[in-house]
């Protein structure tokens, strides 16, 4: 098979074309009905108010430039009041201190008073040392997909490349900061690229981070979902079993790779019906990676020194919904 992704991954990702900032609960292309006088309150995904959000009400031209008729900044309560706005259709634009931008279409009525609470979507920024990585659908590399590096927030393309047989891509982000990675399917017959979504990344140039790390993508009704490994602290295991559960303690059907640090040999195994892995009777240091459908992949450096051949002292490893990394998810796109 020359292109693993041509049938399976292309079909899985075909439903997605959404930009990451949209939420499932409130699509950015829907119109919010407001009144001549309205009170805007901006909160985050936990309902905490957001101070210092720069707000503009106006029109956006074909060059994506905002032409405001009213501007302001949210106060310590996350509030900004608009008074005697001329009736009509507008775009409400909000920009935070990191230059992340949100827009909503609004219709202002001729009379009346209204209140609108905007919940800022949670965005799971991928932390990378550089604009390089390995693109995966769970454990499978996504081969020959096009990855474009875009400026944030204006989405001007800097460069693009295709992933190789390992799903690897390398792009020239020369300075630290926020960028978008736009993922597109390559059609080898027509030569046309079909974008499936954007991934927000934060390039740190921090040598403490891996030089090359994995980004996992899948889709849901919200569009393109993305995540990185949940990296657990190193641990010494004296038992022979691991149990994989979700955040509620329910067993998860999962697969795992146990990778030797000496010679890099790989052993693969799967959980039983109760979520247990029976570990091989190995001694030494290994990298453990765990994959389960709809859950964030987990990795952990472990030292095996089994003294108990039963599963009575199993180490319990929780997994969380895909997109939420090592924690329970917040509402909003990027979860």
TrEMBL record:
Protein name: Carboxypeptidase regulatory-like domain-containing protein
Sorted UniProt keywords: Signal
Recorded superkingdom: Bacteria
Species: Koribacter versatilis (strain Ellin345)
The UniProt record lists the keyword Cell inner membrane: no
Organism lineage string: Bacteria, Pseudomonadati, Acidobacteriota, Terriglobia, Terriglobales
InterPro entries assigned to the protein according to its UniProt record, in alphabetical order: CarboxyPept-like_regulatory, Ig-like_fold
Signal peptide span: 1-21
């Amino acid at each position: 098979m020359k292109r693993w992704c041509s049938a399976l991954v292309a079909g899985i990702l075909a439903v997605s074309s959404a930009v990451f900032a949209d939420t499932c609960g409130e699509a950015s292309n829907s119109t919010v009905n407001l009144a001549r006088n309205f009170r805007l309150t901006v909160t985050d995904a936990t309902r905490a108010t957001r101070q210092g959000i720069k707000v503009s009400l106006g029109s956006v031209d074909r060059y994506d430039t905002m032409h405001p008729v009213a501007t302001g900044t949210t106060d310590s309560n996350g509030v900004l009041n608009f008074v005697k706005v001329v009736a009509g259709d507008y775009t409400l634009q909000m920009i935070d201190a990191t230059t992340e931008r949100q827009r909503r279409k609004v219709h202002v009525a001729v009379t009346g008073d209204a209140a609108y609470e905007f919940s800022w979507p949670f965005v799971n920024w991928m932390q990378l040392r550089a604009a390089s990585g390995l693109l995966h659908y769970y454990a499978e590399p996504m081969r020959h997909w096009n990855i474009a590096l875009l400026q944030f927030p204006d989405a001007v393309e800097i460069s693009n490349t295709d992933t190789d047989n390992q799903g690897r891509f390398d792009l020239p982000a020369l300075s630290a900061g926020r960028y978008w990675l736009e993922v597109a399917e390559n059609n080898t017959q027509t030569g046309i690229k079909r974008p499936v979504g954007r991934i927000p990344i934060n390039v740190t140039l921090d040598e403490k981070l891996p030089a090359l790390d994995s980004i996992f993508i899948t889709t849901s009704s919200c569009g393109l979902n993305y995540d990185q490994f949940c990296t657990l602290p190193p641990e010494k295991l004296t038992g022979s079993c691991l149990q994989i559960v979700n955040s509620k303690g329910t067993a998860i059907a999962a697969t795992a790779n146990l990778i030797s640090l000496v010679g890099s040999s790989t052993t693969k195994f799967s959980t039983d019906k109760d979520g247990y892995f029976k570990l091989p009777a190995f001694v030494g240091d290994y990298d453990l990676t765990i994959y389960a459908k709809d859950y964030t992949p987990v990795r952990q450096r472990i030292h095996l020194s089994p003294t108990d051949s039963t599963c009575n002292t199993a180490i319990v490893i929780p997994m969380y919904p895909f997109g939420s990394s090592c924690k329970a998810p917040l509402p909003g796109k990027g979860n």
